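A quick aside before the break. I want you to see a complete sequence-to-structure record at least once, exactly as it would be stored in a machine-readable document. Don't worry about memorizing anything.
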Amino acid sequence: MLDHVSELVHIIARWVHLIAGIMWIGNSMLFNWIDRNLEKPKDAKPGNIGNMWMVHSGGFYELEKKHLAPSQLPDTLHWFKWQNGITWLSGISLLILIYYLGANR
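That is the input. The structure line, written in tokens, reads:
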């Protein structure tokens, strides 16, 4: 019975690691693409690096990249941190499961 539970934990950790890694790479590719395709507006405000319009699922999005001082940051700031954090944590878990705990098999 313990072997079945151990195998299930290994499978879940591997799938979590794979899916979080794919999400992390996808977000990195999206932001690289956005940075390459930003357009400098003609009437650019100070601190404005560039902007672009995008469409997804029937909605239109206006993106604007700015250089801001720490005191100018908005109250709500969305970070894309969970994909890389879960990738790292699941990777460390896999190392422990496979190489440390699995070494005595």
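Two observations worth writing down. The CA atoms of residues 72 and 84 lie 26 Å apart. The radius of gyration is 21 Å. We'll return to this after the break.
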